[in-house]
Amino acid sequence: MIEFVRNVRLWFVPAEVRRDGETPDYRFSLANERTFLAWLRTALALIGGGFAVDQFLPDLRWGWRVGLALALLAAGVLCSLRAVNHWVRCERAMRRGEDLPVSRFPALLSLVVAVVAVAMVVVVLVGWEG
Amino acid sequence: MSAPAARRQDPDRDPGLQPERTRLAWRRTTLSGTVCAVLAVKTALHGGASTPGILACALVCALWLGFLGVAHRRIRTLAATAAPAAFAPRHAAAAALCTVAMAVCGAALVL
């Protein structure tokens, strides 16, 4: 019976993810997908933050405004690319039964966000009136 | 996440409601994308409706629609079966590329 269920599940698996290993429990795949979506939301929030800095801080000096906006946009790009990459790596690791990949990206991203936040504080304190 | 935990006897319904949670995650992500697109359109049309501004606006709308398409297809798949198939890598790449393109659009608008 379990073998049958596994076969039925295989029918629904696209050929691309059938490269190696065997299909993990679909709930693990869905959890992986939700993690991917959470990272994508983080990326979208960073990009939205970039737009917001550009739009809602018009009194800032041009260099500060564009620099902060570009930093946030670049962080968003990195975050979304990394989201796909990590999703694929996790998917393959699950199919092969290996440990999930570790990553130093969350630490790097939090450092970048902290630096941007400190920059905002400095800007608000000293650089407001260009 | 090592070996699959106790496999359920009836595959009809997952008590953890994983497909539903994944569907709602897609909804949340679509909402985030919408907020982002609205901010992008505001930036594009900031200094009046110029030709590059309108072009950027159309591009952002197209990207938003592309993302919405991916999300809609996935949500339908999730709703259709009790044990949905894994997410296709090309769709994941499409969703992320829409996000990246929106950021590139934003960089062009900001500069």
From TrEMBL, chain A:
Signal peptide positions (record): none
Organism: Streptomyces olindensis
Topological relation to the membrane, as annotated: Multi-pass membrane protein
InterPro entries recorded: DUF202 (IPR003807), IM_YidH-like (IPR052053)
Keyword Transmembrane helix: yes
PANTHER family hit by this protein: DUF202 DOMAIN-CONTAINING PROTEIN (PTHR34187:SF2), FGR18P (PTHR34187)
Transmembrane segments: 36-56, 62-84, 105-128
Entry superkingdom: Bacteria
Residues in DUF202 domain copies: 27-93
Main location: membrane
Protein known as: DUF202 domain-containing protein
Pfam families, sorted: DUF202
Subcellular localization, as worded in the UniProt entry: Cell membrane
Keywords: Cell membrane, Membrane, Transmembrane, Transmembrane helix
From TrEMBL, chain B:
Top-level lineage group: Bacteria
Compositionally biased region (Basic and acidic residues): 7-22
Membrane topology: Multi-pass membrane protein
InterPro entries reported in the protein's UniProt record: DUF202
Residue intervals of the DUF202 domain: 14-77
Keyword Transmembrane part of the UniProt annotation: yes
Region annotated Disordered, chain positions: 1-22
This protein's name: DUF202 domain-containing protein
